[in-house]
Amino acid sequence: MNFGRGPSVVLNVGGTRYSFSREVLKDFPLRRVSRLHGCLSEQDVLEVCDDYDRERNEYFFDRHAEAFGFIMLYVRHGHLRFVPHMCELSFYNEMIYWGLEGSHLDYCCQRRLDDRMSETCTYYAAEEPNGGPEGKGRRPPGAEGGKWLERMRRTFEEPTSSVAAQVLATVSILFVIVSMVVLCASTLPEWRAPENRSVEEQSRYTAESVREPSGIIEAICIGWFTAECIVRFIVSKNKCEFVRRPLNIIDLLAITPYYISVLMTVFTGENSQLQRAGVTLRVLRMMRIFWVIKLARHFIGLQTLGLTLKRCYREMVMLLVFICVAMAIFSALSQLLENGLDLGTKNKDYASIPAACWWVIISMTTVGYGDMCPITVPGRILGGICVVSGIVLLALPITFIYHSFVQCYHELKFRSARYSRSLSAEFLN
After folding, report:
1. Pairwise CA distance, residues 134 & 348, whole Å
2. CB-based contacts of 41: which residues, under 8 Å, 6+ apart?
3. Taking every annotated instance into account, which residue ranges of this chain make up the domain BTB (predicted)?
4. Mean residue pLDDT across the chain
5. If DSSP codes are grouped into helix, strand and coil, which group holds residue 17?
6. Structural domain of 76
7. pLDDT single digits (tens) 66-91
8. CB 3.0-4.6 Å disulfide test: which of 69, 128, 160, 428 passes with 419?
9. CB-based burial of residue 394 (10 Å sphere; 0-12 exposed, 13-18 middle, 19+ buried)?
10. Percentages helix, strand, coil for the chain, rounded to the nearest 5?
11. Do residues 284 and 321 share a domain?
Protein backbone atom coordinates (compact mmCIF):
# COMPACT_ATOMS: atom_id res chain seq x y z
CA MET A 1 0.00 0.00 0.00
CA ASN A 2 1.43 3.33 -1.07
CA PHE A 3 -0.86 5.44 1.11
CA GLY A 4 -1.18 5.51 4.92
CA ARG A 5 1.16 4.46 7.66
CA GLY A 6 1.50 1.54 10.05
CA PRO A 7 2.18 -2.15 9.62
CA SER A 8 -1.51 -3.05 9.51
CA VAL A 9 -4.80 -1.65 8.23
CA VAL A 10 -8.29 -1.87 9.70
CA LEU A 11 -11.46 -2.44 7.68
CA ASN A 12 -14.63 -1.18 9.36
CA VAL A 13 -17.62 -2.75 7.62
CA GLY A 14 -20.93 -1.72 9.13
CA GLY A 15 -19.33 -1.30 12.58
CA THR A 16 -17.40 -4.57 12.55
CA ARG A 17 -13.61 -4.19 12.41
CA TYR A 18 -11.16 -6.49 10.63
CA SER A 19 -7.39 -6.03 10.95
CA PHE A 20 -4.97 -7.13 8.21
CA SER A 21 -1.31 -6.65 7.42
CA ARG A 22 -0.35 -4.59 4.40
CA GLU A 23 1.10 -7.55 2.53
CA VAL A 24 -2.13 -9.52 2.86
CA LEU A 25 -4.08 -6.79 1.03
CA LYS A 26 -1.88 -7.12 -2.05
CA ASP A 27 -3.33 -10.51 -3.09
CA PHE A 28 -6.63 -10.31 -1.18
CA PRO A 29 -9.40 -12.43 -2.81
CA LEU A 30 -11.85 -9.50 -2.67
CA ARG A 31 -11.14 -7.16 -5.56
CA ARG A 32 -12.33 -3.99 -3.80
CA VAL A 33 -10.12 -4.63 -0.77
CA SER A 34 -7.08 -5.45 -2.89
CA ARG A 35 -7.47 -2.11 -4.69
CA LEU A 36 -6.51 -0.36 -1.46
CA HIS A 37 -2.96 -1.64 -1.88
CA GLY A 38 -2.41 0.51 -4.98
CA CYS A 39 -3.96 3.76 -3.70
CA LEU A 40 -1.55 6.74 -3.91
CA SER A 41 -3.67 9.50 -2.38
CA GLU A 42 -6.63 10.03 -0.12
CA GLN A 43 -8.80 10.73 -3.17
CA ASP A 44 -7.96 7.29 -4.55
CA VAL A 45 -8.89 5.74 -1.20
CA LEU A 46 -12.26 7.50 -1.09
CA GLU A 47 -13.06 6.06 -4.51
CA VAL A 48 -12.76 2.59 -2.99
CA CYS A 49 -14.28 3.07 0.49
CA ASP A 50 -16.78 5.49 2.06
CA ASP A 51 -14.48 7.16 4.60
CA TYR A 52 -10.92 7.01 5.91
CA ASP A 53 -9.29 7.74 9.29
CA ARG A 54 -5.63 8.68 8.75
CA GLU A 55 -4.63 8.48 12.39
CA ARG A 56 -5.88 4.94 13.00
CA ASN A 57 -5.36 3.87 9.38
CA GLU A 58 -9.00 2.66 9.33
CA TYR A 59 -11.15 2.34 6.22
CA PHE A 60 -14.93 2.61 6.55
CA PHE A 61 -17.40 0.73 4.36
CA ASP A 62 -21.11 1.42 4.82
CA ARG A 63 -22.19 -2.10 3.88
CA HIS A 64 -24.06 -5.04 5.43
CA ALA A 65 -21.89 -6.35 8.28
CA GLU A 66 -23.39 -9.84 8.47
CA ALA A 67 -23.12 -10.34 4.71
CA PHE A 68 -19.45 -9.33 4.82
CA GLY A 69 -18.94 -11.83 7.63
CA PHE A 70 -20.16 -14.63 5.34
CA ILE A 71 -17.94 -13.30 2.56
CA MET A 72 -14.97 -13.44 4.94
CA LEU A 73 -15.82 -17.09 5.62
CA TYR A 74 -15.39 -17.64 1.89
CA VAL A 75 -11.98 -15.88 2.04
CA ARG A 76 -10.86 -18.17 4.85
CA HIS A 77 -12.45 -21.49 3.95
CA GLY A 78 -13.37 -21.25 0.25
CA HIS A 79 -17.15 -21.80 0.63
CA LEU A 80 -19.63 -18.99 -0.07
CA ARG A 81 -23.27 -19.39 0.93
CA PHE A 82 -26.26 -17.12 1.47
CA VAL A 83 -26.92 -15.41 4.77
CA PRO A 84 -29.97 -17.01 6.45
CA HIS A 85 -33.11 -14.83 6.34
CA MET A 86 -31.52 -12.44 3.85
CA CYS A 87 -32.79 -11.81 0.34
CA GLU A 88 -30.67 -13.59 -2.24
CA LEU A 89 -30.58 -10.52 -4.48
CA SER A 90 -29.42 -8.28 -1.61
CA PHE A 91 -26.59 -10.68 -0.81
CA TYR A 92 -25.73 -10.86 -4.50
CA ASN A 93 -25.44 -7.05 -4.56
CA GLU A 94 -23.00 -7.27 -1.65
CA MET A 95 -21.00 -9.87 -3.57
CA ILE A 96 -20.79 -7.64 -6.63
CA TYR A 97 -19.70 -4.69 -4.47
CA TRP A 98 -16.78 -6.64 -3.01
CA GLY A 99 -15.80 -8.08 -6.39
CA LEU A 100 -17.30 -11.57 -6.34
CA GLU A 101 -19.53 -13.26 -8.90
CA GLY A 102 -22.33 -15.79 -8.84
CA SER A 103 -19.91 -18.56 -9.82
CA HIS A 104 -18.18 -18.19 -6.42
CA LEU A 105 -21.35 -19.43 -4.68
CA ASP A 106 -21.83 -23.05 -3.78
CA TYR A 107 -23.89 -25.02 -6.27
CA CYS A 108 -27.07 -25.11 -4.16
CA CYS A 109 -26.97 -21.33 -3.66
CA GLN A 110 -26.32 -20.79 -7.36
CA ARG A 111 -29.59 -22.54 -8.16
CA ARG A 112 -31.45 -20.38 -5.63
CA LEU A 113 -29.94 -17.24 -7.14
CA ASP A 114 -30.81 -18.28 -10.70
CA ASP A 115 -34.41 -19.00 -9.75
CA ARG A 116 -34.80 -15.71 -7.88
CA MET A 117 -33.22 -13.67 -10.67
CA SER A 118 -35.46 -15.25 -13.33
CA GLU A 119 -38.50 -14.62 -11.14
CA THR A 120 -37.51 -11.00 -10.53
CA CYS A 121 -36.93 -10.37 -14.23
CA THR A 122 -40.46 -11.61 -14.88
CA TYR A 123 -41.84 -9.21 -12.28
CA TYR A 124 -39.95 -6.23 -13.70
CA ALA A 125 -41.09 -7.01 -17.21
CA ALA A 126 -44.72 -7.22 -16.08
CA GLU A 127 -44.83 -4.40 -13.53
CA GLU A 128 -42.52 -1.70 -14.92
CA PRO A 129 -43.47 -1.25 -18.57
CA ASN A 130 -42.57 2.44 -18.50
CA GLY A 131 -39.07 2.01 -17.12
CA GLY A 132 -39.65 2.75 -13.45
CA PRO A 133 -40.91 5.75 -11.52
CA GLU A 134 -38.95 8.28 -13.59
CA GLY A 135 -40.88 7.32 -16.68
CA LYS A 136 -44.24 8.31 -15.21
CA GLY A 137 -43.85 12.04 -15.73
CA ARG A 138 -42.70 12.11 -19.34
CA ARG A 139 -43.54 9.48 -21.89
CA PRO A 140 -41.51 9.04 -25.06
CA PRO A 141 -43.20 8.97 -28.45
CA GLY A 142 -45.16 5.78 -28.92
CA ALA A 143 -45.50 5.21 -25.17
CA GLU A 144 -49.28 5.03 -25.41
CA GLY A 145 -49.03 2.22 -27.94
CA GLY A 146 -46.49 0.41 -25.79
CA LYS A 147 -48.72 0.76 -22.76
CA TRP A 148 -51.68 -0.65 -24.68
CA LEU A 149 -49.60 -3.61 -25.87
CA GLU A 150 -48.38 -4.20 -22.30
CA ARG A 151 -51.96 -4.24 -21.00
CA MET A 152 -52.97 -6.67 -23.73
CA ARG A 153 -49.97 -8.86 -22.91
CA ARG A 154 -50.82 -8.94 -19.22
CA THR A 155 -54.48 -9.63 -20.02
CA PHE A 156 -53.61 -12.75 -22.00
CA GLU A 157 -50.62 -13.93 -19.93
CA GLU A 158 -51.70 -13.19 -16.33
CA PRO A 159 -55.28 -14.30 -15.52
CA THR A 160 -55.32 -12.37 -12.21
CA SER A 161 -53.90 -9.07 -13.51
CA SER A 162 -57.26 -7.40 -14.31
CA VAL A 163 -61.00 -7.93 -14.61
CA ALA A 164 -60.70 -8.41 -18.38
CA ALA A 165 -57.99 -11.02 -17.83
CA GLN A 166 -60.22 -12.96 -15.43
CA VAL A 167 -63.15 -12.86 -17.86
CA LEU A 168 -60.88 -14.03 -20.69
CA ALA A 169 -59.49 -16.84 -18.53
CA THR A 170 -62.99 -17.95 -17.55
CA VAL A 171 -64.12 -18.08 -21.18
CA SER A 172 -61.00 -20.03 -22.14
CA ILE A 173 -61.62 -22.54 -19.33
CA LEU A 174 -65.22 -23.00 -20.50
CA PHE A 175 -64.03 -23.73 -24.04
CA VAL A 176 -61.54 -26.29 -22.72
CA ILE A 177 -64.23 -28.01 -20.65
CA VAL A 178 -66.69 -28.07 -23.56
CA SER A 179 -64.07 -29.48 -25.93
CA MET A 180 -63.16 -32.21 -23.42
CA VAL A 181 -66.83 -33.15 -22.96
CA VAL A 182 -67.29 -33.40 -26.73
CA LEU A 183 -64.11 -35.48 -27.03
CA CYS A 184 -65.29 -37.92 -24.36
CA ALA A 185 -68.80 -38.13 -25.81
CA SER A 186 -67.46 -38.82 -29.30
CA THR A 187 -66.04 -42.15 -28.06
CA LEU A 188 -69.47 -43.43 -26.97
CA PRO A 189 -70.91 -46.25 -29.16
CA GLU A 190 -73.93 -44.08 -30.03
CA TRP A 191 -71.67 -41.33 -31.37
CA ARG A 192 -69.00 -43.50 -32.93
CA ALA A 193 -69.21 -44.33 -36.62
CA PRO A 194 -69.41 -48.03 -37.52
CA GLU A 195 -66.06 -49.45 -38.56
CA ASN A 196 -67.45 -51.66 -41.36
CA ARG A 197 -68.38 -48.93 -43.81
CA SER A 198 -67.51 -48.97 -47.45
CA VAL A 199 -65.09 -46.47 -48.91
CA GLU A 200 -67.92 -44.33 -50.31
CA GLU A 201 -69.81 -44.36 -47.00
CA GLN A 202 -66.65 -43.50 -45.08
CA SER A 203 -66.02 -40.60 -47.44
CA ARG A 204 -69.56 -39.27 -47.06
CA TYR A 205 -69.40 -39.72 -43.28
CA THR A 206 -66.09 -37.86 -43.03
CA ALA A 207 -67.45 -34.98 -45.10
CA GLU A 208 -70.73 -34.80 -43.16
CA SER A 209 -69.18 -35.13 -39.68
CA VAL A 210 -68.03 -31.52 -39.85
CA ARG A 211 -71.67 -30.42 -40.20
CA GLU A 212 -72.80 -32.41 -37.15
CA PRO A 213 -73.30 -30.61 -33.79
CA SER A 214 -70.13 -32.14 -32.36
CA GLY A 215 -68.14 -31.04 -35.41
CA ILE A 216 -69.53 -27.51 -35.17
CA ILE A 217 -68.68 -27.28 -31.47
CA GLU A 218 -65.20 -28.59 -32.16
CA ALA A 219 -64.69 -26.02 -34.93
CA ILE A 220 -65.83 -23.18 -32.64
CA CYS A 221 -63.46 -24.28 -29.87
CA ILE A 222 -60.56 -24.58 -32.29
CA GLY A 223 -61.38 -21.14 -33.66
CA TRP A 224 -61.25 -19.64 -30.18
CA PHE A 225 -57.96 -21.34 -29.31
CA THR A 226 -56.44 -20.29 -32.64
CA ALA A 227 -57.50 -16.65 -32.24
CA GLU A 228 -56.18 -16.61 -28.67
CA CYS A 229 -52.84 -18.06 -29.73
CA ILE A 230 -52.46 -15.60 -32.63
CA VAL A 231 -53.26 -12.57 -30.46
CA ARG A 232 -50.82 -13.67 -27.76
CA PHE A 233 -48.14 -14.13 -30.43
CA ILE A 234 -48.77 -10.65 -31.86
CA VAL A 235 -48.58 -8.84 -28.50
CA SER A 236 -45.58 -10.81 -27.23
CA LYS A 237 -42.28 -8.91 -26.84
CA ASN A 238 -39.94 -11.68 -27.98
CA LYS A 239 -41.39 -13.88 -30.72
CA CYS A 240 -38.65 -16.51 -30.48
CA GLU A 241 -39.07 -16.76 -26.71
CA PHE A 242 -42.84 -17.07 -27.21
CA VAL A 243 -42.39 -20.10 -29.49
CA ARG A 244 -40.00 -21.78 -27.03
CA ARG A 245 -42.30 -21.57 -23.99
CA PRO A 246 -43.70 -24.98 -22.94
CA LEU A 247 -47.32 -23.80 -22.61
CA ASN A 248 -47.26 -22.26 -26.08
CA ILE A 249 -45.82 -25.47 -27.52
CA ILE A 250 -48.70 -27.36 -25.88
CA ASP A 251 -51.17 -24.92 -27.47
CA LEU A 252 -49.70 -25.63 -30.89
CA LEU A 253 -49.83 -29.40 -30.27
CA ALA A 254 -53.50 -29.07 -29.33
CA ILE A 255 -54.48 -26.93 -32.32
CA THR A 256 -52.39 -28.36 -35.17
CA PRO A 257 -53.97 -31.88 -35.30
CA TYR A 258 -57.39 -30.40 -36.13
CA TYR A 259 -56.12 -28.55 -39.20
CA ILE A 260 -54.05 -31.55 -40.28
CA SER A 261 -57.12 -33.79 -40.04
CA VAL A 262 -59.17 -31.31 -42.06
CA LEU A 263 -56.51 -31.16 -44.77
CA MET A 264 -56.25 -34.94 -44.85
CA THR A 265 -60.02 -35.23 -45.19
CA VAL A 266 -60.03 -32.75 -48.08
CA PHE A 267 -57.16 -34.33 -50.00
CA THR A 268 -57.95 -38.04 -49.50
CA GLY A 269 -61.56 -37.92 -50.65
CA GLU A 270 -62.50 -41.32 -52.12
CA ASN A 271 -58.90 -42.44 -52.44
CA SER A 272 -57.97 -46.03 -51.67
CA GLN A 273 -55.74 -44.73 -48.90
CA LEU A 274 -58.81 -43.54 -46.97
CA GLN A 275 -58.74 -46.43 -44.52
CA ARG A 276 -55.14 -45.68 -43.56
CA ALA A 277 -56.01 -41.98 -43.36
CA GLY A 278 -58.93 -42.80 -41.09
CA VAL A 279 -56.60 -44.36 -38.53
CA THR A 280 -54.37 -41.30 -38.71
CA LEU A 281 -57.36 -39.02 -38.26
CA ARG A 282 -58.46 -40.88 -35.15
CA VAL A 283 -54.96 -40.52 -33.70
CA LEU A 284 -54.93 -36.81 -34.48
CA ARG A 285 -58.37 -36.30 -32.98
CA MET A 286 -57.28 -38.04 -29.80
CA MET A 287 -54.38 -35.60 -29.49
CA ARG A 288 -56.97 -33.03 -28.45
CA ILE A 289 -56.44 -34.37 -24.96
CA PHE A 290 -53.56 -31.87 -24.80
CA TRP A 291 -56.22 -29.19 -24.33
CA VAL A 292 -56.46 -30.25 -20.69
CA ILE A 293 -52.90 -29.03 -20.14
CA LYS A 294 -54.04 -25.56 -21.26
CA LEU A 295 -55.66 -25.28 -17.84
CA ALA A 296 -52.14 -24.90 -16.41
CA ARG A 297 -52.26 -21.30 -17.65
CA HIS A 298 -55.09 -20.55 -15.22
CA PHE A 299 -54.42 -22.79 -12.19
CA ILE A 300 -51.50 -22.45 -9.78
CA GLY A 301 -51.54 -26.17 -8.95
CA LEU A 302 -50.70 -27.27 -12.49
CA GLN A 303 -48.13 -24.48 -12.83
CA THR A 304 -46.51 -25.66 -9.60
CA LEU A 305 -46.32 -29.20 -10.92
CA GLY A 306 -44.66 -28.09 -14.15
CA LEU A 307 -42.21 -25.77 -12.39
CA THR A 308 -41.31 -28.50 -9.89
CA LEU A 309 -40.59 -31.00 -12.66
CA LYS A 310 -38.45 -28.38 -14.39
CA ARG A 311 -36.37 -27.65 -11.30
CA CYS A 312 -36.15 -31.25 -10.09
CA TYR A 313 -35.14 -32.87 -13.36
CA ARG A 314 -31.86 -33.98 -11.75
CA GLU A 315 -33.74 -35.74 -8.96
CA MET A 316 -36.12 -37.28 -11.50
CA VAL A 317 -33.18 -38.57 -13.55
CA MET A 318 -31.65 -39.95 -10.37
CA LEU A 319 -34.92 -41.74 -9.55
CA LEU A 320 -35.06 -43.16 -13.08
CA VAL A 321 -31.49 -44.44 -12.77
CA PHE A 322 -32.34 -46.12 -9.45
CA ILE A 323 -35.31 -47.88 -11.03
CA CYS A 324 -33.37 -48.96 -14.13
CA VAL A 325 -30.50 -50.41 -12.10
CA ALA A 326 -32.84 -52.29 -9.77
CA MET A 327 -34.93 -53.48 -12.71
CA ALA A 328 -31.86 -54.89 -14.47
CA ILE A 329 -30.72 -56.74 -11.35
CA PHE A 330 -34.06 -58.15 -10.21
CA SER A 331 -35.26 -59.09 -13.70
CA ALA A 332 -32.10 -61.10 -14.37
CA LEU A 333 -32.31 -62.86 -10.98
CA SER A 334 -36.03 -63.60 -11.28
CA GLN A 335 -35.59 -65.06 -14.77
CA LEU A 336 -32.78 -67.25 -13.47
CA LEU A 337 -34.70 -68.50 -10.42
CA GLU A 338 -38.05 -69.04 -12.18
CA ASN A 339 -37.00 -70.30 -15.59
CA GLY A 340 -33.24 -70.46 -16.00
CA LEU A 341 -32.47 -73.20 -13.49
CA ASP A 342 -33.53 -76.75 -14.41
CA LEU A 343 -35.59 -77.42 -11.26
CA GLY A 344 -38.57 -79.05 -12.93
CA THR A 345 -40.86 -76.10 -12.20
CA LYS A 346 -40.29 -73.65 -15.03
CA ASN A 347 -42.42 -70.53 -14.99
CA LYS A 348 -43.25 -69.58 -18.58
CA ASP A 349 -44.08 -65.99 -17.58
CA TYR A 350 -40.37 -65.47 -16.86
CA ALA A 351 -39.13 -66.93 -20.13
CA SER A 352 -36.87 -63.92 -20.80
CA ILE A 353 -35.37 -60.97 -18.96
CA PRO A 354 -37.51 -58.39 -20.85
CA ALA A 355 -40.62 -60.31 -19.82
CA ALA A 356 -39.43 -60.30 -16.20
CA CYS A 357 -38.91 -56.52 -16.34
CA TRP A 358 -42.69 -56.03 -16.33
CA TRP A 359 -43.00 -58.01 -13.10
CA VAL A 360 -40.16 -55.99 -11.54
CA ILE A 361 -41.83 -52.66 -12.40
CA ILE A 362 -45.25 -53.54 -10.99
CA SER A 363 -43.61 -55.06 -7.91
CA MET A 364 -41.29 -52.12 -7.14
CA THR A 365 -44.18 -49.68 -7.49
CA THR A 366 -46.34 -51.98 -5.27
CA VAL A 367 -49.07 -52.16 -7.93
CA GLY A 368 -49.07 -55.96 -8.30
CA TYR A 369 -51.61 -56.77 -11.00
CA GLY A 370 -51.21 -60.50 -10.35
CA ASP A 371 -50.93 -61.33 -14.04
CA MET A 372 -47.53 -62.93 -13.34
CA CYS A 373 -45.95 -63.96 -10.06
CA PRO A 374 -43.10 -66.24 -8.89
CA ILE A 375 -43.97 -69.81 -7.96
CA THR A 376 -40.67 -71.02 -6.53
CA VAL A 377 -39.58 -70.33 -2.97
CA PRO A 378 -36.38 -68.50 -3.98
CA GLY A 379 -38.41 -66.46 -6.49
CA ARG A 380 -40.89 -65.42 -3.80
CA ILE A 381 -38.08 -64.41 -1.45
CA LEU A 382 -36.61 -62.35 -4.28
CA GLY A 383 -40.05 -60.81 -4.85
CA GLY A 384 -40.24 -59.66 -1.24
CA ILE A 385 -36.79 -58.11 -1.47
CA CYS A 386 -37.82 -56.44 -4.76
CA VAL A 387 -40.91 -54.85 -3.17
CA VAL A 388 -39.02 -53.54 -0.13
CA SER A 389 -36.21 -52.22 -2.33
CA GLY A 390 -38.72 -50.45 -4.55
CA ILE A 391 -40.29 -48.66 -1.59
CA VAL A 392 -36.88 -47.50 -0.35
CA LEU A 393 -35.58 -46.40 -3.75
CA LEU A 394 -38.74 -44.49 -4.64
CA ALA A 395 -38.74 -42.72 -1.27
CA LEU A 396 -35.12 -41.49 -1.42
CA PRO A 397 -35.60 -38.48 -3.80
CA ILE A 398 -39.08 -37.62 -2.51
CA THR A 399 -37.78 -35.21 0.15
CA PHE A 400 -35.94 -33.08 -2.40
CA ILE A 401 -38.93 -33.03 -4.74
CA TYR A 402 -41.30 -32.17 -1.87
CA HIS A 403 -39.25 -29.16 -0.72
CA SER A 404 -38.96 -27.92 -4.29
CA PHE A 405 -42.72 -28.30 -4.75
CA VAL A 406 -43.45 -26.25 -1.62
CA GLN A 407 -40.99 -23.53 -2.72
CA CYS A 408 -42.49 -23.37 -6.22
CA TYR A 409 -46.01 -23.18 -4.80
CA HIS A 410 -45.16 -20.27 -2.51
CA GLU A 411 -43.37 -18.41 -5.33
CA LEU A 412 -46.32 -18.76 -7.71
CA LYS A 413 -48.80 -17.91 -4.97
CA PHE A 414 -46.82 -14.79 -4.10
CA ARG A 415 -46.77 -13.78 -7.75
CA SER A 416 -50.51 -14.33 -8.05
CA ALA A 417 -51.06 -12.23 -4.91
CA ARG A 418 -49.14 -9.33 -6.46
CA TYR A 419 -51.42 -9.33 -9.48
CA SER A 420 -54.48 -9.73 -7.26
CA ARG A 421 -53.53 -6.52 -5.46
CA SER A 422 -53.46 -4.70 -8.79
CA LEU A 423 -56.86 -6.25 -9.56
CA SER A 424 -58.24 -4.92 -6.24
CA ALA A 425 -56.90 -1.46 -7.07
CA GLU A 426 -58.69 -1.62 -10.41
CA PHE A 427 -61.97 -2.42 -8.66
CA LEU A 428 -61.48 0.52 -6.26
CA ASN A 429 -60.80 2.90 -9.11
Report:
1. 78
2. 3
3. 7-116
4. 76
5. strand
6. 8-127
7. 999 889 888 888 888 888 888 888 88
8. 160
9. middle
10. 70, 5, 25
11. no
